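Hello,

Following up on my earlier ticket. Below are the three sequence lines again, exactly as submitted.
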Amino acid sequence: MPLVVENLNHIYMKGGPYETQALHDVSFTIRDGEFVGLIGHTGSGKSTLVQHLNGLLQPDSGRVLVDGTDLADKTADRKQIRCKVGLVFQYAENQLFEETVEKDIAFGPKNLGLDAAEVDRRVREAMRQVALDYETISQKSVFELSGGQMRRAAIAGVLAMKPSVLVLDEPCAGLDPHGREEILGLIKRLHTESGATIVMVSHSMDDVAQLAERVLVMEKGRLVMDGTPEEVFTRGEELRSMGLDVPQVVQLCEQLRARGYEIPERIYRMEDIREILLKILKKGEHHAQ
Amino acid sequence: MAEQRMDEDRILATDVTYRYPDAERNAVDQVSMRVKRGEFLAILGHNGSGKSTLAKLFNALYVPESGTVLMCGMDTRDDELVFEIRQNAGMVFQNPDNQIVATIVEEDVAFGLENNGVPPAEIRVRIDEALKIVNMSEYARKAPHMLSGGQKQRVAIAGVLAMKPKVIVLDESTAMLDPSGRAEVMNTVHRLNRDEGISIVIITHYMSEAATADYVIVMDDGKIRLTGTPRKVFSDVETVRSLGLDVPPMTGLAHDLRHAGIDIRPDVLTVEEMVEEVCRLS
Amino acid sequence: MLNDITLGQYFPGTSPIHRMDPRMKLILTIIYIVGVFLVKSFAGYAVAFLFLYLIVRIAEIPFKYLIKGVKPLRFIIIFTFLLNLFFLTGETPLLDIGPVHLTREALFNAVYFSLRLVFLVMGTSVLTLTTSPVQLTDALERLLHPLQRFHFPAHELAMMMTIALRFIPTLLDETDKIQKAQMARGADFESGNLIQRAKAMIPLLVPLFVSSFRRANDLAMAMEARCYRGGDHRTRLRELRYTRLDAVAAVVMCGFIVVIILEGRIFG
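Thanks for your patience. The regenerated structure is below:
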């Protein structure tokens, strides 16, 4: 159990006139090797929740356990714990600051107090994971990179800490379709090849539908849904009432069912609907002939 | 003033070339295009394809090295006309935080009018009107940093609208917004296009937004590669993908089905159209 | 969550003081400060205090806000007090222990000069508490406008102030984000000696600098696109107008100055 969240409550500006409860009694467990999509409208508490996962924010009550250690535990080495949950912020390229790509990625491992050989090993490994070529890119200035490359360098900077859980907040925000594809591809590879445990915060239901094995939905500081994408995305009406979209594939299934087609429940991936439509339409052709 | 004809050109670019100082290649290369009165154009292209540079040539932020850009008939190379051109061609940028100048919403909306020396009483009338059109009247006295991204962009649109422009150019103005913010902005510009007859040019990475335009231009390497209605452009799935772009999910699905031997229309854009096609074929 | 930090110390309200023309408030604040400098005795300070108290009551501001304004400057005030107390000489000894010589005159001066500082701060506090930064900027631009004839950049100065005010919350927000992002990479901003701490700021300052630069670039482009061309021939949405209220305030302030001058004659 790399990540356990128990009855988490967080209140902003406690006691002040603007007091707001950002998190209400949030509980969930993330198992080893899971790929979790976290969705919710802006202001639903997603970002607050994410910042609790590595102790950047402290809960008002409840607790977060990472690999069995309570984040609030005063005796534990805060830096070590903080790095067990790697957090990639929105527009992560804004945090790049070193002269070279290599130095920037090495920032985290160095803070962990690792020796030079290990730091170097981790930098190379992280660059390979995000598909940045070490030979040609490591000595470049971070500001010479393209937008997509900067984003990947920033992700490498977090990966180099070897976190047991990787949390990505809107990893594709602001990128062009090609850049989006690259990032989604590398996240998918991290999960399938290295078995990384991943939490991805996203506004794009289509992205979540394609990647996640489990979906958490936040609304007004509460965790309102927690289940497989099939379970969550079939609750289309509820999602829409929260101002969230439904993946287009799910919309298509809903509308086809309304027209009397027999579409199995719990279809949300493009590949699946394609097969089903092929069956329906191939049959149609036979009838016609 | 002469009566305005419906086919009147708002933007007319002829063989426009632009190169950034010290750059090796032309950012915009021999581009010719036009936007007519009341038209809604979407410009697509991967990062660095030259689409934002093209947009900045429309309102004389950049001036073509060769070729001409006529904005409402005014040549952007004419220094005398610069401010009239910018008043006619409003521009909304990508980052909502980096284009709001004043510390109070209504003062920001007034910024352009103040620059143009419009009398205070007239400014008052115009900003109230503009804020009403974008549904931000109740935020007139608020500080911009308290607003959501979508609201900030609507304030920016109001600031442009108060200038009574004939064209509004949105340079990736939805890129940093969440889905509801994007919807706010897109609904607003469609309403302006429909009700006020303002020509709209959007530059976007979202294929779903481009699908709602009258025309689409796809740029690559500073040149126009594809042009036509969204239906026509997106049905050329292979070319669009080869240019580093995507097609709307349903268009992609139709493409795959055609590959598997189904005789489905290649230019399906929306879920509704896909449903109709499935009904027709089975 | 830095959104709720109010800028400056503006205390919104609709009192006559709030409604005054900000130019008049600015001018009268300067006159009040001059008045405080003319004070010769503690009786004069009593008058200055009563006057200030009256204004604060009219403005409907809790008096503790004035005290709050003095707080950040307490070290300077205490320093002034001690400096005057120990380094001024006088004729009437009060205390004489070892190397410490205190005189009556030195004590008087110490209290007198520190009080002057206190009144200076409290007087300007009334201005900033009742006038929003936007109004202040407006007032400054228009009061300095005549100096533009001598190439004084009044408009540019005001524009810079406006932009600074506009971007402070944005940059605070950004600082918070970058700081958290670097902490997530194990950066430590809290421990170590002075040099280590200064070095630890680099991962925060470099990104902040880069982003400020980008923002400045974007903003310049956006301002240009909206026909910005400097201060010439520019009109303003809000015009400032002097009203009867301002006339009344000016007369009252004249009364205060006369009293202070008389006090100087009598007690000085």
